[in-house]
């Protein structure tokens, strides 16, 4: 009942998730990302613990491969055939899982630096369109590419039940998100997400965001204490 993209940007080291569904408040449980670690989307019969625990494992075990992480998470998941999960790490490596019980059309496509996945879709077309949109926009800012990928998936049919919520969650260098935009309940959530994203590009918000404190500005003693 969801389509999403997880991605990492080798130029800026941003990582994030863009997602949409015919369900309430998709941004609350599906997207997970941590700066310098990676991003995970957990969907179908959503288990947010897969995202939370997966990022902890990636952070604490720096040499853990994403395929190994996926196997570890699924080995503890009793209902793995009902789950859909995809991952990108801080090196751009990707891995994905679509359980047998995920409702058609369901599947995933993994690439270097990003992955797309969906279930209960009209067809495979939304994933193909998302991948093409993201790949063809390398000249654009990372967050814009994520939004365009989501728009492409929606234009080609998206969730076959309709539309309700969408979200964009991106992290960069801090523990708090670079962007966390959500449309929790709306008849046209992706168009509304676009409006929010465009608003976030205006000077008043950019200057506000750039003035926020960062770990980079902390004295070393405080930064180490926070760790």
Automatic annotation (TrEMBL):
Protein name: DUF1028 domain-containing protein
Annotated SUPFAM superfamilies: N-terminal nucleophile aminohydrolases (Ntn hydrolases)
Pfam families documented for this protein: DUF1028
Organism superkingdom: Bacteria
Gene3D superfamilies: Glutamine Phosphoribosylpyrophosphate, subunit 1, domain 1 (3.60.20.10)
InterPro entries xref list: DUF1028, Ntn_hydrolases_N
Lineage start: Bacteria, Bacillati, Cyanobacteriota, Cyanophyceae, Nodosilineales
């Amino acid at each position: 009942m969801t389509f999403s993209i997880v991605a990492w940007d080798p130029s800026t080291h941003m990582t994030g998730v863009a997602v949409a569904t015919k369900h309430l408040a998709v941004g609350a449980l599906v997207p997970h990302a941590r700066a310098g670690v990676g991003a995970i989307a957990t969907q179908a019969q959503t288990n947010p613990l897969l995202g939370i625990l997966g990022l902890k494992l990636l952070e604490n075990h720096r040499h853990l491969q994403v395929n190994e992480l996926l196997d570890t998470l699924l080995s503890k998941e009793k209902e793995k055939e009902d789950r859909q999960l995809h991952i990108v790490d801080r090196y751009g490596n990707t891995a994905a899982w679509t359980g047998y019980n995920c409702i058609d059309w369901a599947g995933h496509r993994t690439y270097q630096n990003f992955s797309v996945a969906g279930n209960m879709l009209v067809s495979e077309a939304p994933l193909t369109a998302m991948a093409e949109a993201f790949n063809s926009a390398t000249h654009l800012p990372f967050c814009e590419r994520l939004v365009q990928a989501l728009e492409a998936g929606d234009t080609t049919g998206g969730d076959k039940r309709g539309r309700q919520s969408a979200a964009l969650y991106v992290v960069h260098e801090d523990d708090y998100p670079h962007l966390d935009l959500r449309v929790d309940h709306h008849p046209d959530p992706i168009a509304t997400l676009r409006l929010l994203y465009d608003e976030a590009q205006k000077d008043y918000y950019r200057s506000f965001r750039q003035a926020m404190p960062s770990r980079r500005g902390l004295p070393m003693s405080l930064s180490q204490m926070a760790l």
